[in-house]
């Protein structure tokens, strides 16, 4: 032991130093030995404690990762299979993208009610109030429809869904909607309407068996076409908005998958769909909200003071067109990514065939709401809008048995009744 260490361990005690020092050394030695072994045991104990804490922590982490993942696992697969179960002879199992959306939730319910199997997928994005999407999800849940939370750009999720269920059909309604929002967030249109579509088609073409695909195009593809009513044979190469351009691109993209891989494709050009559980970003919905709240509404007016007009189409009519399309879609011919023969490629207008001007839409709302709107009329900004839409639906009538039956007056009446009950209005005043 060096003196300095000795001095540290045995501080000098004047007068008794020598005798006491050897006793003291013995005692200290034992004490030191005892405390070293105790320390060693403590160290061992602490190491063991730390190791078990760390392994417990990693168990918690991995389990919470497992449990917080929005898809996957035995329970999840069971929910998917149950939801996809067919309850009628000759029924179909349909994967519905955008199932928590306006059209998606209505089509899901209609298919389920007639005994088809339905599995939804939706990314629940916040383009508009996600609580409305959640409410639609709850409604579908009461009818045993399961919506998988995920994005159509996630090919692993899509593969997993097709591994779990041999879907006979895909109803592809997930999209970035809205004509004017494309100027604010152009990339979201490319992400959902182009990249997402291609991801979905890639998975469908490789599936065995391949599903038949029905998907939502848009009346906006007619763009600057002024040949009325709009027929599927008219030109669609002059889109007025990026939204329209991505929907038109979708029509071309689906054509290539039909041509190369034998996927059965039906594209539906929806004309300004409205109704209960609708989209809050659309004019009829936001006008209703503002009128009830006493806020002004902005009415766009076309060139030379001409009123804008839309071929507003009620949701129940659109749902019938969607089901008619699924029922008549014909089979995809390919398997495992190889085409085995020609498959149907179809495009239909789904409109109402009776355009109504925006000021007339506002008048109808005022009557149903028993409240006058504070109107601000402005010239239509150059934001992608087209002056009017008007569908020729003879092709859908012939091939799908499509025959719209709801005019704007009665359709808006149903919408307003839903709106007042959903948002808890009592004589024009919100009750919650
Ligand atoms: O058929 C479609 O494929 C598209 O239909 C729908 O687009 P649009 O026909 O533009 O519907 P919507 O926004 O309700 O505007 C209606 C009218 O109100 C006018 N409008 C609008 C807002 C406003 O503040 N003021 C106004 O005058 C406006 O100028 C227009 O004249 C879907 O949103 C779209 O996703 C797509 O599906």
Detailed description of the structure:
- This protein has 432 residues and is α/β, with parallel strands linked by helices.
- The protein has a domain at 175-430: NAD(P)-binding Rossmann-like Domain (Rossmann fold).
- 47% of the residues lie in helices and 14% in strands.
- It has 13 helices and 15 strands.
- It has a 7-stranded parallel β-sheet with strand order 3-2-1-4-5-6-11, with helices on both faces. Strands 7-10 form a two-stranded parallel ribbon. Strands 8-13 form a two-stranded parallel ribbon.
- It is globular, with a radius of gyration of 33 Å.
- Bound molecules: the ligand O=C(O)[C@H]1O[C@H](OP(=O)(O)OP(=O)(O)OC[C@H]2O[C@@H](n3ccc(=O)[nH]c3=O)[C@H](O)[C@@H]2O)[C@H](O)[C@@H](O)[C@H]1O.
- It is found in: Golgi apparatus, Golgi stack membrane.
- It holds the Pfam family Epimerase.
- It is an enzyme of class 5 (isomerase).
- Homodimer.
Features:
UDP-glucuronate 4-epimerase; disordered N terminus; about 425 residues; globular; binds the ligand O=C(O)[C@H]1O[C@H](OP(=O)(O)OP(=O)(O)OC[C@H]2O[C@@H](n3ccc(=O)[nH]c3=O)[C@H](O)[C@@H]2O)[C@H](O)[C@@H](O)[C@H]1O; Epimerase_deHydtase; Rossmann fold; EC 5.1.3.6; 7-stranded parallel β-sheet; single chain
Biggest sheet details: 7 strands, parallel
Q: Uncertain segments of ≥5 residues (pLDDT<50)? A: 1-27, 58-66
Order of helices and strands: HHHEHEHEHEHEHEEHEEEHEEHEHHEE
Give the CATH class of the domain at 175-430. Alpha Beta
The CATH H-level homologous superfamily of the domain at 175-430? NAD(P)-binding Rossmann-like Domain
DSSP helical segment count: 13
**Number of DSSP strands?**
15
- Kindly report the oligomeric state of this protein: single chain
Order of strands in the sheet with the most strands? 3-2-1-4-5-6-11
Domain NAD-dependent epimerase/dehydratase: 94-328
Keywords: Isomerase, Membrane, NAD, Transmembrane, Transmembrane helix
EC number: 5.1.3.6
Transmembrane segments: 32-56
């Amino acid at each position: 032991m060096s003196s300095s260490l000795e001095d540290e361990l045995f501080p000098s005690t004047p007068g008794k130093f020598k005798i006491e020092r050897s006793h003291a050394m013995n005692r200290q030695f034992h004490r030191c030995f005892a405390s070293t072994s105790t320390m060693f045991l403590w160290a061992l104990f602490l190491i063991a404690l730390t190791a078990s804490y760390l392994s417990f922590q990693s168990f918690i982490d991995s389990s919470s990762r497992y449990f917080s993942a929005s898809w996957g696992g035995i329970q999840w697969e069971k929910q998917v299979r149950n939801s996809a179960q067919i309850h009628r002879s000759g029924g179909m199992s349909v994967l519905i993208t955008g199932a928590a959306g306006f059209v998606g939730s209505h089509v899901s319910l209609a298919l389920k009610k007639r005994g088809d199997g339905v599995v939804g997928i939706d990314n629940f994005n916040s383009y508009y109030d996600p609580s409305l999407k959640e409410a639609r999800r709850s409604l579908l849940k009461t009818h045993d429809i399961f919506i998988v939370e995920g994005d159509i750009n996630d090919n692993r999720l899509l593969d997993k869904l097709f591994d779990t269920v041999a879907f006979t059909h895909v109803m592809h309604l997930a999209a970035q909607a809205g004509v004017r929002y494309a100027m604010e967030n152009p990339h979201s249109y490319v992400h959902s309407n182009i990249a997402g579509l291609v991801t979905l088609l890639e998975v469908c073409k490789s599936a065995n068996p391949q599903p038949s695909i029905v998907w939502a195009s848009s009346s906006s593809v007619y763009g600057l076409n002024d040949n009325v009513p709009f027929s599927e044979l008219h030109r669609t190469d002059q889109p007025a908005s990026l939204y329209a351009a991505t929907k038109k691109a979708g029509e071309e993209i689906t054509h290539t998958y039909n041509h190369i891989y034998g996927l059965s494709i039906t594209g539906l050009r929806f004309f300004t769909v409205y109704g209960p559980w609708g989209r809050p970003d659309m004019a009829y919905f936001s006008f209703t909200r503002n009128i009830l709240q006493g806020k002004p509404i902005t009415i766009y007016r076309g060139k030379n003071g001409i009123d804008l007009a839309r071929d507003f189409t009620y949701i129940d009519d659109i749902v019938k067109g969607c089901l008619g399309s699924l029922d008549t879609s014909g089979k995809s011919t390919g398997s495992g990514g190889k085409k085995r023969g020609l498959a149907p490629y179809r495009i239909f207008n789904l409109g109402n065939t009776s355009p109504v001007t925006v000021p007339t839409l506002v008048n109808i709302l005022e009557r149903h709401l028993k409240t006058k709107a504070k109107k601000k009329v402005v010239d239509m900004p150059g934001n992608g809008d087209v002056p009017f839409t008007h569908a020729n639906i003879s092709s859908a009538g012939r091939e799908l048995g499509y025959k719209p039956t709801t005019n704007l007056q009665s359709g808006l009446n149903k919408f307003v009744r839903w709106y007042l009950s959903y948002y808890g209005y009592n004589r024009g005043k919100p009750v919650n």
